[in-house]
Specification:
alpha/beta; Rossmann fold; Arc Repressor Mutant, subunit A; 2 domains; 6-stranded parallel sheet; 6 strands
Length: 210
């Protein structure tokens, strides 16, 4: 089994290799999106499994800004590769965006990491894909339960507002008119039963959506 581990912490790489000692025939390690890209384009071997951390130094020349972009890229070159994306993020909107964009075989929040489950996933045993760790699964269900947040533009709007951007600044980021953005915010306010977007952000954070 050929495995690529993409993580910018040497201790984490070593930990994965120790866990996988008995099932790996060849293990490649990289520590950035650029190194990941160069590695994939310099080998003719099939990659059976990719273990990718969400937060890695980006490679803007190839539009690989996060581990999620690396997941999408390896899927183009190795469609049958089992991709495991691991992240420290626990915010529901972030996890849902990763899930929708990449659809990895496994999405694991670091707090949920379990070495036995990890090995079973890599062996494609016991678990049906996609596998979601408990926090990831709970978070994604939260988004699905709120119809307005299923829309990617609405998720962008609430995320930018939570980062301190003003309403009249958002059209530069989400590519919608201010009036359209206001209508979308009104829909979210009604769904969450709050009066303004400041309250919306408070509620979203309370429920770990942001």
């Amino acid at each position: 089994m050929n495995i690529i581990i993409a993580d910018d912490h040497q201790m984490v790489q070593d930990g994965y290799k120790l866990i996988l000692t008995d099932i790996v025939s060849n293990c490649i390690t990289v520590s950035s999106c650029e190194a990941f890209y160069n590695c994939l384009n310099s080998t003719s071997e099939k990659i059976h499994v990719a273990i990718i951390d969400y937060n890695m130094p980006s490679y803007r020349d190839q539009n690989l800004n996060t581990g999620a972009d690396c997941c999408a890229y390896i899927k183009k070159l190795h469609p049958k590769c089992v991709v495991v994306l691991i992240t420290a993020h626990e915010e529901a909107i972030v996890l849902y965006n990763i899930y929708r964009k990449v659809r990895p075989e496994a999405l694991i929040v670091k707090f949920d990491f379990d070495s036995k489950i990890f090995i079973d996933i890599l062996k494609s045993n016991k678990y049906n894909f996609p596998y979601l760790s408990p926090i990831a699964e709970k978070s994604i269900k939260k988004i699905i339960s709120h119809n307005s947040l299923l829309d990617s533009k609405n998720r962008e709007i609430i995320m930018y507002l939570s980062q301190g951007f003003k309403l009249n600044q958002l059209e530069n980021f989400v590519m919608l008119s201010t009036s359209t953005i206001q209508k979308r915010i009104s829909k979210m306010l009604n769904e969450f039963e709050v009066k303004d977007y400041q309250e919306l952000i408070v509620i979203a954070r309370k429920h770990n959506l942001l």
